[in-house]
Design a protein that fits this description.
Structural class: alpha+beta
Shape: globular
Distance between the termini: 7 Å
Radius of gyration: 21 Å
Helix content: 40-55%
Number of strands: 13
Strand order of the largest sheet: 5-4-6-3-1-13
Number of helices: 12
Strand content: 15-25%
Order of helices and strands: HEEEEEHEHHHEEEHHHHHHEEHEE
Length: 388
Amino acid sequence: MPTPLIQAVQADFQQRFGYAPLLVRAPGRVNLIGEHTDYNAGFVLPAAVDKEMSFAVGLNGTEKIRLVAYDLGEDFELANAVEISSSATHWANYLLGVAAQFQLRGHAVPGFDCVFAGTVPMGAGMSSSAAVECGLAFALNHFLGTNLDKMELARIAQLAEHTYAGVQCGIMDQFASLFGRPGHVVRLDCRSLDYEHFPFDTTACRIVLCNSGVKHSLASTAYNTRRQECERGVAVLQQHYPHIAALRDATLAQLDAHRDELGPTVFRRCAYVVRENTRVVEACRHLEAGDLAAFGQEMYASHAGLRDDYEVSCEELDVLVEAARKAPGVFGSRMMGGGFGGCTINLVAPDKVAAFIASVSAAYREKFGMTLETCQTTIVGGVGAVAV
């Protein structure tokens, strides 16, 4: 059954363009643990969730690309689909970048129309940008008959963000949007791209997101700087251990042995990544054992590393995690996403969710005078067409 939002997008498309579109839903994601490990060839543990982007897309028989951001009440038009280039209209670049990637693979992209809208909170660390990219990639794959598999669509979406949005993101966000499975989290090896689904029982605990209300733009934060710091660390280690191609290959002992050479800042960045990879592996072991309390402790440790060693947290996120730690029925909490704002992800016993939300909201209001936005999420399947 189409959601009210996708029905609205469909109606807007038909009113504007006068023909029936393909309807597509593309979920955002949460990441239970494994932050900033993806571009270091490490492990991540995301899941697709029911906050998603809705699309109506169709080929228009012209050379024009016509894009409509339904939520924003804005539209964008490119006169010639053959000559795609980045635009001053920021949101259009996520879509244009996807079309350009199809062209780079030798697939002619004809004129098309796209109306999209979403329930993924913008700037909250739930990968609204990846959902936008993956939804259009799915639609173009359908219309062009390119038969690209889901992993290739994830690469297309990732490269679109690199080249047109200017964020050197790893592949996790796009992967999670495309490979989600209802009732499961998925551990991705970001080097080999091997993956494994793990059942996640949302009757045993709920996933509750607390939005700090601090909006971030990864391209204008220190995200790319952190990536460069990790690369500097690898370059130092490679001089002594030629087999180290990424921080995934490094150990804490190796980092300690070259602490002076790395310098204090790069050492802390690298140490965080090495520890976080271990936490993901341990977290999956706890999940298989049904030990949510132990899983939650890995989350708290992840947040401490992101705050102290990787330095991508902020006061608002730290207050939310500490408030969660004091609330009854909370298994674990941490900041989620690139950092500098966005959401915390919290695992909460079902019968304690209301008390948790009340407690954390009161603490946030007392500290910052702000009303806390929270939401519970359901784990869903990945990108797909919506039947009318």
